[in-house]
Backbone:
């Protein structure tokens, strides 16, 4: 009823090929963007910008990156944090050593650096797949972090190995408040997310999906495996690299190589799987879930413990948070193994059929 | 030469410790195709339960039994509440579920027993063997030799169990083909429970030995990072592979640290085994002893 | 729609609903709210429970015994950081809005979190206090007005350890070999340049042995140490690395009484898991091990009232608990100093900053507090945010720590100029103009 294509006639190819062919989708996207760019900045407090919204966007971008690789091209990777680290440190060095360069360009170049590193570590994907590949990408994870630490050039000879990101200027405006940081990150993430969405339905995207579903069959129908897989690694790492640069410059402000630990790689992978592999929306849902849930648990559980007068000390409460977090992950995997984005699909289906059940 | 030998022996013996952790992965992967990332958390949980039970004044032997009991309960619960619900889901979902399980265990362990770092006393001194030290100036630890022995016994026992018992045969059948095994009347769920319980036992042994070496603390979870390259080298499905892989990883990483480390500033032990495994995979994508995977279109 | 799906949707709604009512101001007129960024879980949790146990015990102690500071009650809220920068930032932002003082002063007890908060605390005007860790070049208050690496820093500590070794070797280190076994991270690497400079002045031979994090494998490095026939080992470890190092040293037969750890490697949590291998092991400390008049009183007042923070009373006056007491003591003394100047009311971050720069906790005052010898006397100024730079060496006898040295000061003449240089470089990178300390009152 509310969501159907009936009556929306396409009279030229351009109209038929747009990203969101349905009017309802276009309205929906416009509403979401308006919310993000206008309503939220007007209403939210600083805490929301710096502790929830900015990390949410940064991790969404990283999750989109990994989703391209894992969800679309079917290559499991546990090196996400390493590619983010490359992005963060490359951006730092670009800003430091090429002071004339606009910061946005530095961030994009940082993404390119990450893409190159990603391609290097993507080479083995031609020979190995599945969990073997996953463990092999750990080589990237550990090697990159080690190298960033070991060679002082990357950290500009800082004695402690910690870089502190330079203040960012965009078009002459200084990003000096959480709100501005948020808007800047939101702009970049929106543009890159739309690009990813578009890429996924292009020739390249379809090749990735063919490789994901069965690489031998894909090769038989003439898809060059090496190029396709490497391109997936490159694009994915580019996204992760930009996410890493934003993480360093717009979220934490100072970074040490160890911050990009294996744990972070896992978290991003979680976002992709829980959100929904092979959907851009899923990356956002997954990131929201993983940024908000731990914070929610850390607020709700102590409050509940206090309310019920449970004799737990602070440490026990934290362990309960851990346990709930783990249990919830399992719960969501059981309930919705295709990811939370699937819920949206089902909702759309309902809206289409409403008021009839079938 | 003496130094080379010493490092080599030390490395081989450390490698055995890695194998011990890798063994738990192999068992579960073999029987259920699940890449069980919670193995590290299981090692921690088992060791913590053991130390916690011991702290209640229970004698050593009984504490081992009770900790094993806890691991069996855990295995059964995992099968009942996690695996059974996720049958036929893609391997990545199962993998993620085991990470969820790892979080759960990392919370449950200290919730029950507290998180202080504790000592495990096995009664074997971790000191160089005097005769070797005096005669050949070789420092080889008594404890490491003992650990290697335990590991050898464990592998032999597992091999016997797999080869010569009814359950063992059923396990191998399940490992070969779930559906075929089901169709000849092998109870898949029971088998999974048993495998998880056995993996729990391996985790307990690994937990005791690693705990005696480094102390029982949350860092015990991180021993998986040492086991993963062993797995790729040896193949995910091979028990002997886990042992041989462990020996290779242990010895090469130590030799590399000592002889190559200086050229690049050292501390390469963290990534060296992974790069080694990666290079190795390029030659043999299924590991040393892994089953060759044939794609059918 | 499946029932589970409904349940899912309901949960999502609940989640969002609860988050919407998040931070609210909870500060009444006569309370001093303190943000406590604690870590009690994860690999470093065991140290954290002791440290934050001591910190909160001291705050409770002041509340119970004196009814707060100058009639102002101390209140606080904890937030778990797991020692990670990202979580620390979230916690800081969450607790910041709960009081007009933005949390009075922040003790992250974590180097990554201190770095991440360095600029945020500067912008919010709340002092960042790092007792014995964190950004070491913040010693120079001209460039870092809001950051205080109080009591001692890593370089001061490592040079003090060298000076202890020199004492033991009758001031002659020529031709001696010192092996530096360190966690291969920012924490371990920062010292290298200072130790190398010391090696040049004293004429000893320094060998470096990095350990890959987390440090649960050290066999090869210790075989190298044995091979090189090192006379002394300086151990810069953290968490699981410490007991593993002691075990590995025992394994190659290196004498533990020639191994000296940093203060992160010198608590019961580090030695107990190593068992007999730890016997004789030495470590630096900036807080006295064992019971003191203060810890006894805290036990009586706080634990007597059932308000103790440690679940296990036997850990009272353990090294980490004492360290927490010292952090609490510094916090309260700073608030007291601020009140002396600005009046007996809840003080703001800016006032606390002034107080931290004019902190003077002398021996007499420590004695009054029952903390004589618990920590070195601390006297800060605009130029010196460290205030002491002294440590003692303690030895583990198998059951407890005993002191084996008097206060030893680090090589200030070497360390402070290098720190100043580093601070100036930072200021240049950030475009900060230093304050003129001679113009401050």
Residues:
């Amino acid at each position: 009823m509310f969501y159907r294509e009936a009556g929306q006639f396409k009279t030229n190819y351009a109209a038929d090929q747009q990203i969101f062919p349905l009017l309802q989708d276009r309205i929906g996207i416009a509403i979401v963007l308006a919310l993000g760019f206008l309503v939220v900045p007007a209403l939210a407090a600083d805490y929301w910008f710096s502790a929830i919204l900015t990390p949410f966007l940064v991790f969404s971008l990283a999750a989109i990156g990994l989703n391209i690789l894992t969800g679309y091209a079917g290559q499991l990777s546990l090196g996400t944090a390493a590619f983010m680290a490359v992005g963060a440190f490359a951006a730092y060095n670009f800003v430091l050593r090429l002071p004339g360069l606009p910061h946005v360009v530095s961030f994009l170049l940082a993404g390119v650096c990450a893409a190159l590193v990603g391609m290097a570590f993507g080479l083995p994907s031609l020979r190995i797949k599945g969990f073997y590949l996953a463990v092999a990408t750990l080589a990237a994870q550990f090697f990159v972090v080690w190298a960033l630490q070991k060679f002082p050039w990357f950290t500009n000879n800082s004695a402690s190995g910690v870089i502190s990101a330079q203040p960012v200027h965009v078009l002459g405006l200084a990003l000096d408040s959480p709100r501005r940081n948020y808007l800047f990150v939101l702009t970049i993430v929106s543009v890159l997310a739309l690009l990813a969405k578009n890429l996924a339905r292009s020739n390249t995207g379809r090749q990735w999906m063919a490789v994901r579903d069965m690489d031998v069959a894909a090769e038989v129908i003439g898809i060059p495996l090496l190029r396709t897989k490497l391109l997936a690694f490159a694009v994915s790492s580019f996204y992760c690299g930009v996410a890493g640069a934003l993480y360093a410059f717009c979220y934490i402000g100072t970074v040490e190589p160890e911050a990009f630990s294996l744990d972070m790689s896992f978290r991003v992978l979680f976002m992709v799987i829980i959100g929904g592999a092979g959907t851009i929306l899923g990356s956002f849902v997954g990131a929201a879930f993983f940024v908000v849930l731990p914070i929610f648990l850390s607020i709700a559980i102590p409050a509940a413990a206090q309310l019920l007068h449970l004799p737990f000390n602070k440490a026990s409460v934290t362990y309960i948070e851990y346990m709930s977090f783990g249990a919830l992950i399992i719960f969501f995997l059981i309930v919705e193994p295709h990811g939370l984005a699937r819920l949206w699909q089902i909702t759309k289906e309902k809206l289409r059929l409403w008021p009839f059940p079938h | 030469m003496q130094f080379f030998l010493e490092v080599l022996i030390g490395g081989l013996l450390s490698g055995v410790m890695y194998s011990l952790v890798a063994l738990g992965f192999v068992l579960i992967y073999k029987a259920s195709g699940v890449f069980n990332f919670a193995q590290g958390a299981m090692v921690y949980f088992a060791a913590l339960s053991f130390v916690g039970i011991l702290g209640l004044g229970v004698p050593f032997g009984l504490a081992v039994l009770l900790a094993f009991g806890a691991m069996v309960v855990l295995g059964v619960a995992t099968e009942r509440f996690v695996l059974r619900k996720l049958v036929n889901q893609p391997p990545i979902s199962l993998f993620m579920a085991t990470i969820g399980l790892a979080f759960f265990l990392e919370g449950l362990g200290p919730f029950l027993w507290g998180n202080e770092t504790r000592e495990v006393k096995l009664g074997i001194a971790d000191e160089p063997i005097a005769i070797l030290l005096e005669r050949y100036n070789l420092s080889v630890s008594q404890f490491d030799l003992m650990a290697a022995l335990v590991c050898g016994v464990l592998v032999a026992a597992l091999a016997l169990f797999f080869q010569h018992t009814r359950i063992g045969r059923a396990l191998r059948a399940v490992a070969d083909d779930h559906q075929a095994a089901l169709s000849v009347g092998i109870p898949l769920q029971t088998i999974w429970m048993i495998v998880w319980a056995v993996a729990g036992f391996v985790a307990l042994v690994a937990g005791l030995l690693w705990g005696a070496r480094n102390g029982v603390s949350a860092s015990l979870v991180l021993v998986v990072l040492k086991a993963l390259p062993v797995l790729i080298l040896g193949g995910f499905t091979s028990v002997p592979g886990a042992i041989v892989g462990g020996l290779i990883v242990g010895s090469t990483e130590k030799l590399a640290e000592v002889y190559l480390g200086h050229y690049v500033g050292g501390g390469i032990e963290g990534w060296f085994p992974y790069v080694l495994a990666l290079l190795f995979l390029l030659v043999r994508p299924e590991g040393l002893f892994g089953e060759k995977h044939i794609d059918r279109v | 729609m499946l029932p589970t799906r409904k349940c899912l949707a309901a949960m999502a709604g609940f989640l969002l609903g609860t988050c919407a009512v998040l931070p609210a101001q909870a500060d009444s007129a006569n309370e001093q709210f303190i943000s406590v960024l604690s870590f009690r879980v994860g690999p470093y949790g065991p140290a954290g429970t002791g440290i934050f146990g001591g910190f909160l015990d001291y705050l409770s102690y002041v509340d119970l015994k004196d009814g707060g500071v100058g009639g102002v009650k101390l209140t606080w809220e904890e937030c778990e950081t797991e020692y990670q920068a990202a979580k620390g930032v979230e916690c800081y932002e969450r607790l910041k809005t709960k009081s007009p003082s933005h949390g009075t002063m922040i003790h992250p007890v974590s180097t990554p979190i201190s770095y991440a908060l360095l600029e945020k605390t500067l912008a919010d005007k709340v002092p960042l206090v790092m007792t014995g860790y964190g950004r070491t070049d913040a010693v120079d208050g001209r460039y870092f007005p809001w950051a205080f690496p109080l009591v001692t820093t890593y370089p001061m500590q490592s040079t003090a350890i060298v000076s202890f070794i020199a004492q033991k070797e009758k001031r002659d280190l020529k031709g001696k070999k010192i092996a530096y076994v360190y966690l291969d991270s920012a924490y371990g690497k920062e010292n290298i340049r200072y130790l190398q400079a010391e090696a040049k002045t004293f004429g000893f031979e320094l060998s470096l042995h990095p350990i890959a994090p987390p440090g649960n494998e050290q066999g090869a490095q210790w075989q190298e140490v044995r091979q090189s026939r090192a006379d002394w080992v300086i151990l810069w470890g953290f968490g699981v690395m410490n007991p593993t190092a002691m075990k590995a040293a025992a394994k190659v037969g290196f004498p533990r009484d020639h191994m000296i750890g940093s203060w992160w490697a010198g608590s019961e949590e580090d030695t107990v898991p190593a068992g007999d291998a730890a016997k004789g092991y030495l470590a630096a400390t900036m807080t006295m091990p064992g019971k003191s008049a203060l810890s006894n009183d805290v036990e009586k007042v706080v634990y007597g009232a059932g308000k103790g923070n440690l679940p296990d009373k036997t850990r009272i006056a353990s090294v980490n608990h004492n360290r927490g007491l010292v952090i609490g003591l510094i916090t309260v003394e700073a608030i007291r100093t601020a009140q002396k100047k600005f009046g007996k009311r809840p003080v703001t971050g800016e006032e606390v900053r002034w107080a931290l720069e004019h902190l003077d906790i002398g021996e007499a005052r420590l004695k009054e507090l029952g903390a004589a010898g618990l920590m070195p006397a601390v006297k800060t100024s605009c130029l010196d945010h460290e205030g002491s730079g002294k440590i003692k060496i303690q030895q583990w006898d198998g059951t407890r720590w005993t002191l084996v040295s008097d206060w030893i000061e680090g090589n200030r003449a070497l360390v402070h100029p290098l720190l100043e240089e580093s601070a100036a470089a930072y200021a240049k990178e950030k475009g900060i103009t230093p304050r003129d300390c001679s113009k401050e009152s």
